[in-house]
Design brief:
The protein contains 8 helices and 7 strands, in the order αααββαβαβαβαβαβ. Strand 1 and strand 2 form a beta hairpin. The protein is elongated. The strands form 2 sheets. The protein has a 5-stranded mixed beta sheet with strand order 4-3-5-6-7. Helix 1 crosses helix 2 and helix 5 packs across helix 8. It is an alpha/beta fold. It binds zinc ion. The site of zinc ion has 8 residues, from helix 4. Zinc ion binds next to helix 4.
């Protein structure tokens, strides 16, 4: 191992998701050799993201104000509400240009093996939003994998007594995959072809 600051940096980088010890070392030495101004820009972006970015008080997407850009947009329909796992899924769906409704970001998916139940997600907040009665169609756009399917099934059961239309994205999405990795056309078609559950 190394001494002092460089080892501290390797340790910190190694704590990030998807970064193994070798990658952490490679990144640390890359930064050591980079221009000071470039490293300062990275450092300032890290500090700023914690200072400025928070979660939208309505949909829990990332926001730089009390409400996110999508919740503040008066031209979007309140009748369509799309439930996703993470903020990155909002970005993926926005890229398709197919959706003009609102979102609700759960903050993950039900995963009993990792101790993630409905209480760890923004399910209570979703129910509170639906109670206002404005939503006509609830679109369950959780990932097409085991956890995403379990979450969609759970939510469909929970909202059944409310009598609104509940839809799930059409097949064509790669099974076992992650919504954010679907290309725009596939995701756009899955949106158009969504079916009632
Ligand atoms: Zn929002």
């Amino acid at each position: 191992m190394y001494e002092g600051a460089i080892q501290d940096l390797i340790d910190e980088l190694g704590r990030l998701p998807g970064i193994g010890p070798k990658s952490a070392q490679r990144l640390a030495f890359h930064l050591l050799q980079a221009e000071t101004v470039d490293v300062q820009r990275l450092a300032s972006a890290l500090v700023k993201v914690k200072e400025l970015v928070r979660f939208c008080s309505v949909c829990f997407n990332v926001a730089e104000a009390e409400q996110c850009r999508i919740c503040r947009d008066p031209r979007r329909s309140n009748e369509l509400l799309c439930v996703v796992e993470e903020p990155k899924d909002v970005v993926a769906i926005e890229r398709t240009g197919e959706f003009r409704g609102r979102y609700h970001v759960l903050g993950g998916a039900i995963n009993p093996l990792e101790g993630v139940g409905p209480d760890s997600l923004r399910v209570r907040e979703l129910m509170a939003r639906l109670a206002s009665g404005e939503t006509k169609e609830l679109i369950l756009a959780t990932d097409p994998n085991t956890e995403g399917e379990a979450t969609a099934t759970y939510l469909a059961l929970m909202v059944k007594p409310m009598g609104l239309t509940v839809t799930r994205l059409a097949s064509g999405l790669p099974v076992g995959g992650d919504l954010e990795y679907a290309d725009e056309i596939t995701l756009g078609r899955a949106f158009e072809g969504r079916r009632a559950v």
